[in-house]
Design a protein that fits this description.
The structure is a single chain. By secondary structure, the protein is of the alpha/beta class. 16% of the residues lie in helices and 37% in strands. It is built from 2 helices and 8 strands, in the order βαββββαβββ. The strands form 2 sheets. The protein has a 4-stranded mixed sheet, with helices on one face. It has a 4-stranded mixed sheet with strand order 5-8-7-6, covered by helices on one side. It is globular. The two termini are 28 Å apart.
Length: 134
Amino acid sequence: MSDAKPAFRMLHTMLRVRDLEKSIAFYTGHLGMTLLRRRDFPGGRFTLAFVGYGDEASNTVLELTHNWDQEEPYDLGSGYGHIALGVPDIYGTCAKLEAAGVAIPRPPGPMKHSTTVIAFIEDPDGYKVELIEK
């Protein structure tokens, strides 16, 4: 096995969001991410906002793309899965999120065929976020 650094590094995952302010509030307020940067592109009628748990130089981040003229909810499709986050106290975290009005379609509990404790929450656009107790 080589000790050479890989040629590629994960930079970000992009989600299209309908209400940028609501999405930024969800990821920063409920999930503790930081708004790292935000830029409007008037010629293309869209805004990019990057959120994450650390600077982009050394962390993978989440890009929220807001197309200004999008009025209908996005079709999330059947190919997209979810974002996964590790949390130390999944039951306490889910209780706080539920009290704050966050949708929890799969409450915390052991994964089928495993002892790993997981839960699924939804962001304002319906994207799934898996919480894994670490």
